[in-house]
């Protein structure tokens, strides 16, 4: 059977781009790079692009979401008369937070 040619480089099989995570680096990512990676995790088509304004908007939304989650978790810990916030407090606050967003 002849090998297929075209976009897959003649191998007949195209590698799944989502199968391997990007290489990890010890260099911290910028906010824009982090948002870009988060968005690309859920794109079905690797050619999907997001313009810079949309990335900034998503970054700002994520920043507000994380701050609100932390504040609600802290209030939950205070309601339980605890000085330390734990993941349990976040888990208790998360359902309403998701509904609010």
UniProtKB/TrEMBL annotation:
<comment type="similarity">
    <text>Belongs to the CENP-X/MHF2 family.</text>
</comment>
<dbReference type="GO" id="GO:0043240">
    <property type="term" value="C:Fanconi anaemia nuclear complex"/>
</dbReference>
<dbReference type="GO" id="GO:0046982">
    <property type="term" value="F:protein heterodimerization activity"/>
</dbReference>
<dbReference type="GO" id="GO:0006281">
    <property type="term" value="P:DNA repair"/>
</dbReference>
<feature type="region of interest" description="Disordered">
    <location>
        <begin position="1"/>
        <end position="31"/>
    </location>
</feature>
<dbReference type="GO" id="GO:0031297">
    <property type="term" value="P:replication fork processing"/>
</dbReference>
<keyword id="KW-0234">DNA repair</keyword>
<protein>
    <recommendedName>
        <fullName>Centromere protein X</fullName>
    </recommendedName>
</protein>
<keyword id="KW-0238">DNA-binding</keyword>
<keyword id="KW-0227">DNA damage</keyword>
<dbReference type="InterPro" id="IPR009072">
    <property type="entry name" value="Histone-fold"/>
</dbReference>
<dbReference type="Pfam" id="PF09415">
    <property type="entry name" value="CENP-X"/>
</dbReference>
<dbReference type="GO" id="GO:0000712">
    <property type="term" value="P:resolution of meiotic recombination intermediates"/>
</dbReference>
<comment type="subunit">
    <text>Heterodimer with CENPX, sometimes called MHF; this interaction stabilizes both partners. MHF heterodimers can assemble to form tetrameric structures. MHF also coassemble with CENPT-CENPW heterodimers at centromeres to form the tetrameric CENP-T-W-S-X complex. Forms a discrete complex with FANCM and CENPX, called FANCM-MHF; this interaction, probably mediated by direct binding between CENPS and FANCM, leads to synergistic activation of double-stranded DNA binding and strongly stimulates FANCM-mediated DNA remodeling.</text>
</comment>
<dbReference type="InterPro" id="IPR018552">
    <property type="entry name" value="CENP-X"/>
</dbReference>
<dbReference type="GO" id="GO:0071821">
    <property type="term" value="C:FANCM-MHF complex"/>
</dbReference>
<dbReference type="GO" id="GO:0051382">
    <property type="term" value="P:kinetochore assembly"/>
</dbReference>
<dbReference type="GO" id="GO:0003677">
    <property type="term" value="F:DNA binding"/>
</dbReference>
<keyword id="KW-0539">Nucleus</keyword>
């Amino acid at each position: 059977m002849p090998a297929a040619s075209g976009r897959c480089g003649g191998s007949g099989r195209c590698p799944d781009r989502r199968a391997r995570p990007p290489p990890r680096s010890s260099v911290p990512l910028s906010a824009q790079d982090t948002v870009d990676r988060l968005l690309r995790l859920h794109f079905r088509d690797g050619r999907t692009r997001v313009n810079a304004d949309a990335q900034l908007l998503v970054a700002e939304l994520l920043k507000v979401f994380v701050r609100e989650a932390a504040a609600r978790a802290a209030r939950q810990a205070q309601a339980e008369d605890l000085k330390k916030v734990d993941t349990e407090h976040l888990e208790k606050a998360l359902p309403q937070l998701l509904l609010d967003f």
